[in-house]
Amino acid sequence: MRSINLKFNKLIKYHLLFVCLIVFLLPKVSSGTNYADNQTDTSITNNNLPSVISDTLDTSLKERKIILKDSSVLVPGEPVTSIQEHPQEKVNSPHNNVNKIVLWLMGDKNVAEYKIRLIDYGNDHLPLFLRKYFMRFVEKTYTYPIIILFLLLISGLILNVTIVLLVMYFTSKTKNHRERYVRIYRNHYEDVLRSFLFGDIDWDLARLKLKRLKVPLNRKILTDVLLVFKENLRGEMDSQIPQIFLKLGLEKDSIKLSKSIFYFRRIEGLKALTNLDPENAKVIISNYLNDSHITVRTEAQVAYVRLHPENPFEFLKTLKKPFTRWTQLSSFYIFRLHQIPVPSFTDYLDSEIPTIRNFGLRMIIFFQQLENAPAIFKLLDSPFEMTRYLSIQAINDLRLYDGKQLIKNIYQGETEKNKIEIIKALKNIGDEADFEFLESIILSDSISLKTEACRSLYYINNLGRERLNVLNQNSDLEIDQFLAHVTNSRN
Amino acid sequence: MDKELISSIFENFFLIYAICIFSLYLWLAVVSARELIRNHFHARNTNYDAIISTPFAPMITVIAPAYNESLSIVENIKALLALYYPNFEIVIVNDGSKDNTLEKAIEAFDLEKVTYIVDYKIPCKEIRGIYKSRKRAFNNLTVVDKFNGGKADALNSGINVAKGDFFISIDVDSIIDPYALQKMIKPFLEEPCRRVIATGGVIGIANSCKIVDGQLVEINVPNKLLARFQVIEYTRAFLMGRLAWSRLDGLLLISGALGLFDKEVAIGCGGYYTKTVGEDMELVVRMRKYMSQQNIKYKVAYVPDPLCWTEVPVTLKNLGSQRNRWTRGTIDTLFIHWNIFLNRKYGFMGMISHPFWVFFEWLAPIIELFGIIYFLVIAFLGSPNWPFLFVMLFFVYTFSITFSTYAILYDILAYNRYKKKRMIIKLLLTAWIEPIIFHPLVVYWALRGNFDYFIRRKKTWGNMTRVGFAQQKPSKKNPEK
A321, A343, A365 — which closes off a domain? Predict the structure, then answer.
């Protein structure tokens, strides 16, 4: 609800701007000027035109001078009338007859008030040198015929298109130039570093050949090259790469980046430090494990897994935000890629955050951590469907026979997805004692449950197959069709 | 009421409507720009290797309805099999084709009919048979042969057969980016607090592009003007409209050519509605409505990458028929779900998105028509202010080309698809003549759509001729589809 309110507030903000635009375009309560008076001779002849035009033009001719009661916009020497003092006069003016719908929609006072507000805003917020121009702008938009405003808008749009075209041209040019520049220096740095790492040249010569390292873009290119080398090279060279990074002082750039206000720069910094300066990274990433930005958080958590092989998922104990599936996948990927020793995931099954519990269950299933059975059974009572689903899956995959009765007990109250999982589990951990249970499902209405029940009964043992044959003969359930389906490994 | 008051009502209404539409589009453009920037940096920091190599990747079912696709079915299935994702299956639904679509698939992939128990969770026309390949390489391919029932019905039967937790609905004759699945599943996996129910992607136009073995290898600007107009239109719609709506959580339409859905939610709300020609929009609206009614926090996500390429109509007849159908689909969806209009219960969708579609998508061409009629009346009864009229027209024109030029700029900045300067110049020139040539046609087709919907009560897809990507020969499409 709060987010909806925020969106409405945003909308109101945007629409206030839009209403202001309407006020600009329909100048009803404006002060007459000599300029406008001059315009009216021609406009009066076109009086049967769309009201918006004639409205503005007539205004200039017929409207009496009404100036808002605001000291900041008083024009010395001109007669002053306030709207509030002469409401009848205003309503009777020909201009207002034409625009009564808009006046009805927005209210007479509002129209005047917007102008006052605009002027007050200018007085209160704008710098002194701008104020004069702003006042003039407000006055003129309330005074000039609408046609001029449209012409101004058209000029603005044409200018806009011109700027866009220039941006297109220069963007394309700059992009191409930058791409070429990056390519050239990337190749150069790769060549030099390759020569150094393979022992063709010594460090002093390599340092000399690494040109333009004072340029931030070049330092970034070099960092990227080092990251690629680090990812692809192993053995002695692998340990040399971080040393090059430190020798060239590139870690300072990365530390600076990791403190940037822009999240994407923070990520860049974290990535470089994690791979090339692990000691510094260990200190820094702890600050970002609960970062408000999900991408930074993910990067920090993945980096933690990489840098703490002794206990890669310890951070989950201090996590305050959900551990999304994407982050789970990313962490798991790094975990496997770097062949980090597998820890016990029991602790995470007690986490208050459901996504951490689910992750723990997934890991327990994947790494077949059988010792966690009691904790898994406890999770069958979880209020979260996914947690129960994974617990049933764990009982199935780890062949936890003690859990069989537990999952059968919860069957009735489960969702269809979990029911299917329970039946699937019985295929692996079930026995003759479950035949009746499965047969009752076969006699139920749900096709999906029936199919799975047939599959389980068929694969438990030969007795199960015999029971299916008996069922097939004694009923019109078309069990043979189900059997044909479940025995085809492609289905 | 006197004449002056009536004219005042009309004029003020047209003016306010025009200002509303302009300001809303400007607002959407600004939101889109911010979202594009956000996405640019977000995508830069994403490592898709994590999902490609994981055993935990959720299963996705790719559902592709096919009707009389014998020209390209084999190539298209091959392209789908090459999708780069670790856990997916392909379900091709032969929707009662009258040509040899099924036979071609059987022959090419060594398919055989298998006994298959189908759980009809969503009602659909009877399935005649399920075909699986004898070759292990095509283990994840299923071909469903069913009686003709239209695209929505074919998709429903695909959902009934699908094994995955998510399904992606595509047009079989579209070209899907090999990385589409991993990109589209990401929003489902990274959303921490809300349930993502659907993801849409950008549709690119493949006319005149170079396609080899069902893969897009070279992007070109279409040679035909009508297709080029549609490039501008699609760019505007996807990069300046839908992107902004997704950011505002008000996206009501995910293109039928490419959309990834949460199967459980789709089944929960009854699947595709078969009695409408706008089944893609209708499903999204119904899924959103269903989630609101269940009081579950949800999100419809959007991936602003061109993940699907499709051939657009290049003849006035086909294009008119397509636009006519889109209009009827829109009206149908808006009316089927009329109870969400300005209904606070449905949040942003009820208060903003649905009314926007009513006022600025459905009613826009009708109001435009009334504006023209009103002007003609004025022109006959009196003497209109010609200078003002021309200034006004020119203003609308400049606004329109500014908008299109920005769309092209967004495209260049976001994707840089059109590498040659010549292509960009071609697009710009097309954008500048589009309001004069293409827009009146679009308005006309939309009006025809309204006429067909309200007066003729037409509910069918209409005729469509498409040139297959593979052979580039014309094939007649189903009137039902």
Answer: A343
